[in-house]
Amino acid sequence: MAFPSPTRSAVARIIGVGALAGVAGIGYAAGIEVRNFTVRKVSVPILPPGAAPIRVLHMSDLHLTPSQGRKRRWIASLADLEPDLVINTGDNLAHMESVEPLLEAFGPLRDVPGVFVLGSNDYFAPKMRNPLWYLRPDDGERNTITPKLPFDELKAQLSKGWLDLTNTSGRLEVNGNELAFVGVDDPHLEYDDLETVAGPAPVEAALRIGVAHAPYLRVLDQYAADGYDITFAGHTHGGQLCLPFKGAIVTNCDLEPARAKGLHRHPADSRPGDPGSSWLHVSAGAGTSPYAQLRFCCRPEATLLTLEPMKS
Question: What is the pLDDT of residues 95-105, one digit of tens each?
Answer without folding.
Answer: 999 999 999 99
